[in-house]
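Folded chain entry —
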Amino acid sequence: MIRVLLVDDQPLIRSGFRALLDLEDDIAVVAEASDGEEGLALAREHLPDIALIDIRMPVVDGIEATRRIAADPALARLHVVILTNYGLDEYVFDALRAGAAGFLVKDIVPEDFLHAVRVAARGDALLAPSITRKLINRFVTQPLHSGADTRLEDLTNREREAVALVAQGLSNDEIAGRMVISPMTAKTHINRAMTKLHARDRAQLVVLAYESGLVAPRNP
């Protein structure tokens, strides 16, 4: 059973998402909150698998709530999915840097919404390759830090190569084809890199790859 926490200051939005989720046999909404502070408390109480968090809320917004969740060792298995009305804006990238696994636009069709919840629960790539590419092209115009990140020294050459390809928005199958290895081996390289870099998920690898200079940004 996938346990979900809903955090949004609009009751109608929460009700709509809950109605969709409650129809599924493998998903259960365990709690609802109207701001990030309440959401954090409920996350610690219920230990859900997924937290769907609105990016703009009173008291504590989605970015700060995500940052606090990512910093809490007790919530290490919780995947944050940011909800936004605005698509790819600057707040979304800030949320990914804070520790979010990905984001969804609120006008998403129900089938895609349910699929995204299941993907996030598996810990797989929540950001579709097409969305990752748009994110990179839109926001990553220059490295945030100069010089190589010393954490990258712990990676093997193949792990570095896999991380660089993740940052380019490639799926596991595409990475396997580029590296001439099996998809399972590609996933193993990525998982080992995530462990060494203390990255919560694939989105964090994208951010780190650009911040560290492992991958050079492209102009949109």
